[in-house]
Amino acid sequence: MNVKELAILTLLSEGELSVKEIEEYTGISRKNLIKTVRKLERKGYIQKKAYIGDDVIIEITEYGMEALYKNFIYLRDLINEMENILCTKFDC
């Protein structure tokens, strides 16, 4: 899972959002955002909930929450390891 996907899932873990809102929060261009949203939907991590004009409201699925949690564990451990390595080298 890439950083864009993690950012989108993290935002959606707090509640449903429109594609336009996600674009504003993340700064991801609309074209790239739509591409990433479609990819997440195909994987079963998110689902469309409603349409408002030309915008789509999406929400994270239970499967998406599980994937986000697995990545959180991995990233948390990676950050801890980085901190240990850097603090050993730079006395922090």
Shape by Cα distribution: elongated
Query: Under the CATH scheme, which architecture would be assigned?
Result: Orthogonal Bundle
Please report the number of helical segments.
4
Overall average residue pLDDT: 95
Q: Tell me the number of strands.
A: 3
- String of helices and strands: HEHHEEH
CA-to-CA gap between the ends? 31 Å
How would you sum up the major sheet?
Answer: 3 strands, antiparallel
Instruction: Extract low-pLDDT stretches.
Output: none
**What is the CATH level 1 assignment?**
Mainly Alpha
**What is the subunit arrangement here?**
single chain
Range of helix content: 55-70%
Strand fraction band? Answer: 15-25%
Features:
single chain, 92 residues, alpha+beta, Arc Repressor Mutant, subunit A, three-stranded antiparallel beta sheet, 3 strands, DNA-binding transcription factor activity
Write up this protein.
By secondary structure, this protein is α+β, with helices and mostly antiparallel strands. The protein has a single domain, classed as Orthogonal Bundle (Arc Repressor Mutant, subunit A). Helices cover 65% and strands 16% of the residues. The chain has 4 helices and 3 strands. Strand 2 and strand 3 form a beta hairpin. It is elongated. The two termini are 31 Å apart. The mean pLDDT is 95. It comes from Saccharolobus caldissimus. InterPro entries: ArsR-like_HTH, HTH_MarR-typ, WH-like_DNA-bd_sf, WH_DNA-bd_sf. GO terms for molecular function: DNA-binding transcription factor activity. This is Transcriptional regulator.
